[in-house]
Amino acid sequence: MDASFGPEQAARWIAVPGPADDKYSRGVVGFVTGSARYPGAAVLGVEAALRTGVGMARYLGAGRPTRLVLQRRPEAVTAEGRVQAWVVGSGQDPDDVDELTAALRERALADPVPTVLDAGALSFAGRATGTRVLTPHAGELARLLGRDRAEVEADAAGAALEAASRLSAVVLLKGHTTYVADADGGLLSAASAPAWTATAGTGDALAGILGALLATHALELEADPGIAAPLAATAAVLHGLAAERASGGGPFTVLDLCAELPATIRSLLAG
Ligand SMILES: NC(=O)C1=CN([C@@H]2O[C@H](COP(=O)(O)OP(=O)(O)OC[C@H]3O[C@@H](n4cnc5c(N)ncnc54)[C@H](OP(=O)(O)O)[C@@H]3O)[C@@H](O)[C@H]2O)[C@@H](O)CC1
Ligand SMILES: Nc1ncnc2c1ncn2[C@@H]1O[C@H](COP(=O)(O)OP(=O)(O)O)[C@@H](O)[C@H]1O
């Protein structure tokens, strides 16, 4: 049986800065995302993280995605430095990234902080040294498990649990209902998103939201890595609620969804 996770639960997992906080104590999220083929995914992840609220978003990558990220978000820092959670793989093919990006990806995976493994980084989960949170869609999870996509879709919760146990990871399986499974058999589900959310790039934004939530809970995660699961479910709820606001019953763009994140969070915090 899964526990349904909604706005009330998500509200408890928003880190509110206090007077003594600075940008580093709030949390730095690092991105090794995007590629020559999919530079837009880099922009969407950084945009979503900044709109979720974080001390700093650090983006490391090749020239073109870096330029696009800076053009959209000049507050992004593109120099190396400390990071409390990584987002790796959105907008990348596992074996088709440039040398610099591959080296940055290796460094991120070797950093023992919580790491979101999305899209092209899913197959590197075994190499990640920090708490792992995988964010596959059903097609990607089928590939990871060596199953048919139809089989995964027929028992999405079971497939997420199996992958979480096999990979000692938190697995967030995307879909109309999003399942979050942990390696101990825990299962959460979130279903706040309208079907209009099925549009290219919304998954890249979800990875950014999740990275921001992990970075802003770095100390708590160090003490209890088990909270990665409710944080992942919180990302799915925020993403779904922001999508609902952006949609209002119709289509929307991924940047529209990102623009609704601050108001979504304000409303959760106001209760
Ligand atoms: N603006 C940008 O830069 C964007 C960049 N992006 C980046 O593109 C890269 C490729 O990602 P991708 O998900 O498009 O393809 P891929 O990994 O080949 O999928 C494998 C197979 O899975 C299936 N499948 C697909 N979606 C499914 C779903 N939701 N639920 C269930 N099944 C689904 C489908 O199977 P089929 O339908 O063919 O049977 C497909 O053939 C990745 O790095 C991503 O970050 C995108 O985020 C878009 C915006
Ligand atoms: N039918 C649906 N209803 C609600 N949300 C959906 C639906 N289909 C997909 N989504 C959501 O849209 C996002 C799509 O992510 P993903 O498949 O990774 O696409 P992309 O790689 O193009 O960003 C996920 O957050 C997923 O939960």
TrEMBL record:
EC number: 4.2.1.136
CDD domains in the cross-refs: YXKO-related (cd01171)
Keywords for the protein's UniProt record, in alphabetical order: ATP-binding, Lyase, NAD, NADP, Nucleotide-binding
Residues involved in AMP binding: 174-178, 203
Positions of (6S)-NADPHX binding: 41, 91, 137, 204
Reactions performed catalytically: (6S)-NADHX + ADP = AMP + phosphate + NADH + H(+); (6S)-NADPHX + ADP = AMP + phosphate + NADPH + H(+)
Keyword flag Nucleotide-binding: yes
Gene Ontology process terms (BP): metabolite repair; nicotinamide nucleotide metabolic process
UniProt GO molecular function: ADP-dependent NAD(P)H-hydrate dehydratase activity; ATP binding; NAD(P)HX epimerase activity
Keyword ATP-binding belongs to the record: yes
Assembly notes: Homotetramer.
Its job: Catalyzes the dehydration of the S-form of NAD(P)HX at the expense of ADP, which is converted to AMP. Together with NAD(P)HX epimerase, which catalyzes the epimerization of the S- and R-forms, the enzyme allows the repair of both epimers of NAD(P)HX, a damaged form of NAD(P)H that is a result of enzymatic or heat-dependent hydration.
HAMAP family tied to this protein: NADHX_dehydratase
Family designation: Belongs to the NnrD/CARKD family.
Protein name: ADP-dependent (S)-NAD(P)H-hydrate dehydratase
Originating organism: Protaetiibacter intestinalis
Gene: nnrD
